[in-house]
Amino acid sequence: MGIFYFFGTQLLSSTQIIASSSEKGLDERINEGFMPFAIWWEKLILAEVAIFGNGIPLVLILLILGALFFTLYFGFVNIRHFPTAIQVVRGKYDELEKEKSVLKTIVHEVDGDVKGTIKDEGHLGEVNHFQALATAVSGTVGLGNIALVAVAISIGGPGATFWMVLAGLLGMSTKFVECTLGVKYRDIDKDGTVFGGPMYYLSKGLKERGLGHLGKFLAIIFAVLCVGASFGGGNAFQSNQAAAQIIGLFGLTGSATGSIIGLVFAVLAGIVIIGGIKRIAKVTEKVVPFMAILYVGAALFIIFSKIDIVDEAIAQIFSEAFSPRATITGGFAGVMIQGFRRAAFSNEAGAGSAAIAHSAVNTAYPASEGLVGLLEPFIDTVLVCTMTAVVIILFNMDGTFMYGNVVDGQALLKDGSRLGGVNITSLAFEDSIKGSSYVLMVAVCLFAFSTILSWSYYGLQAWKYLFGRGKLTDLTYKLLFLVFTVLGAAITLDAVIKFSDAMILALVFPNMIGLLILFPKVKAEFTKYITLVSKKKSE
């Protein structure tokens, strides 16, 4: 109960500050009330340990070492089976699902979950492989790919890009493990509704290993943190940066402008999330390809238009990954931390969140969806984040802003002003393609909207695990979620980054403990599926 006490006292303190600041504008009052809690939470989750004289957050050490272990243990599944993953998404191996000998939904009899869990072989999930991937990608490919890449480079310089990409490649293996477990230990109701994610593989999987009490404890902790993460990184941060882009582009003013924009986002999101995962999947499978083509197309145009200096930008990424500029605080360790931290927020590998969406897939083979899941960090970090980084580095060749000189999430520009997050990326796009800031605004809003939709589902699943599966439970969570959509648009970038970063990274602790105990189960599922795939290829 300690975690509830701390949350309660911190939020109460924040509420009191808001109430006592009645003379200030609405957005400013909300921000002043929220900031103390954000600072406290960030310090708690990002506690550091000293390694070779440098302070490195413990959560990042756990994340990277875990990802490295899974990569080695599964024989570089992230590289060797990348083509197989593409084929699974394309539906090449869908025939395997039709074999009656394997169409058996597992009924788990631990934790009293047998009631309401179906035995009907016709119900294997709610969405197809592509829809599951689209929903999960829409939850990861968000404004972290646009805004936080700019933050990472502003603080850590071009070298942060190298560590982001490395973390993305290693994270593919972690995502494979958690998505496989998500399908293996999911529950499916009699009406075909899926309940899955770390909450279930922590409680059920660890009970199978004789660690039932630990599993239940970790599942509850994860669910609580997942609800918080859905309010923060999956919601408030998205509406914050969408509002910042709109306000900056149109020069809007007013003490409640951010709140009004947040309210519009909340109404639009509310219309979709009321319909559940099937409606969310239908929206994201249309929005994700469109926003990807829109954003990636613009980024590639800029890169090719400056192809003569791209080699110089890439050279900076590699050289400054190990020998950063003197202005970069923390030197080599500081650059590495920025890259790993932003990659973790961006692709969420190790956080376990995407396993919730992947659990809803219609498949009889857990490892098939694990392979689909490993595509996420590649799309999210290796492709999209790298493109954003290269565009920003190309833009800053003439030193428009100073690497390392960042205050409250904002970098120092040559004219003495400060700019941060999505607005730096917008400036970079506008510098190369006049008028593209309006295109970026559309992309930003789509990125934010799709991420909000996906995270509403993640948070709802965690909420249901904690409080039950009734209609009132659903409605209560969705209303709270939409309140944070409004709040997020009203607070500053610095406050929302502190809260959002820490909330998503906090998920790593309970989730990675479970993954490091349950990975042999993944090995068994992987061997079974790959054997069938190999036979299919040889036919």
From TrEMBL:
Membrane topology: Multi-pass membrane protein
Cell location: Cell membrane
GO MF term (any one): amino acid:sodium symporter activity
GO cellular component, one term: plasma membrane
Pfam families for the chain: Na_Ala_symp
Entry keyword set: Cell membrane, Membrane, Symport, Transmembrane, Transmembrane helix, Transport
InterPro entries per the UniProt record, alphabetical: Na/Ala_symport
Stretches that traverse the bilayer: 44-74, 146-166, 214-234, 246-275, 287-307, 378-397, 438-458, 479-497, 503-519
Entry-linked NCBIfam families: agcS (TIGR00835)
Family statement: Belongs to the alanine or glycine:cation symporter (AGCS) (TC 2.A.25) family.
Listed name of the protein: Alanine:cation symporter family protein
Organism encoding this protein: Flagellimonas nanhaiensis
